[in-house]
Amino acid sequence: ILNLSNVSIMMGNYEEARENFESLLPDLREDDDLNMLARVHHNLSIVNKFSGEFEEASTNLNLSIDISRKINDVPLLAISYLEKAEISYRMNDYHSSADLASTAFHLFHDIGDKVSCGDIYKILGMINRDMDQDNLAESFFNTSLKINKQYHFPISLGETLFEMGEHDYKRGKLEDAKKNYKEAISAFKEINATLKIEEVEEQLAKITT
Q1: Which of 28, 47, 59, 192 is the most buried (most CB within 10 A)?
Q2: Strand, helix or coil at 146?
């Protein structure tokens, strides 16, 4: 169920994923399966995030972080801090987002996870873009882009290219925005991320129509 639910998230079937994850919780609590319980709460937070339920996402991430720390699951702890950094960004709490991203970065560095560091640079780029720190934003985005191209991680690559397109669109660099949006679509097509493709196409249409 867990793997199928993750596929549902990627395909944009958020309610199906939510139902599947929530159906697992009672047995996991009864069996005291802390490892899987932490993962389900983390994955529920992703459903919450894509559904715009940021408070619920933060609650699930706090549960995932607490359990991960208890069982010393450092990779899951790191990725939960990463997700919480993005949630804080979505809630316009840039200071907390940067602090959480820094915590995640150090954890990923400790376990040698260079790919996930690309997501951290993306979030830092988003924060600095919104704060009109254009040079810093571009530097962070370009570092994220380099990492995701090097390790060929389509979902993160597409997300970084989309955010770079948003940065260019905000600054009136429409041709650059168009290029980044189109490359984001290509990355998302590799994994059939339907809803993400639609999101980028909606932004691209603002330029081309």
Answers
A1: 47
A2: helix
Tokens matching residue 124: 């830092």
CA–CA distance, 137 with 171 (Å, rounded to integer): 12
Q: What is the pTM of this model?
A: 0.87
16, two tokens: 């199906």
The token duo for 159 is 């997300």
Tokens of 85: 């950094």
152: left (phi over 0), alpha (psi -120 to 50) or beta: left
Rounded CA-CA distance 185/158 in Å is 7
Confidence of residue 133 (pLDDT cuts 50, 70, 90): very high
The span from the CA of 164 to the CA of 60, in Å, is: 29
Mean pLDDT across 131-146: 97
- Integer Cα distance of 85 and 22 in angstroms: 23
Give the residue with greater pLDDT, 1 vs 187.
187
| pLDDT band per the 50, 70, 90 thresholds, residue 10 | low
Q: Which pLDDT band, with edges at 50, 70 and 90, does 5 fall under? A: very low
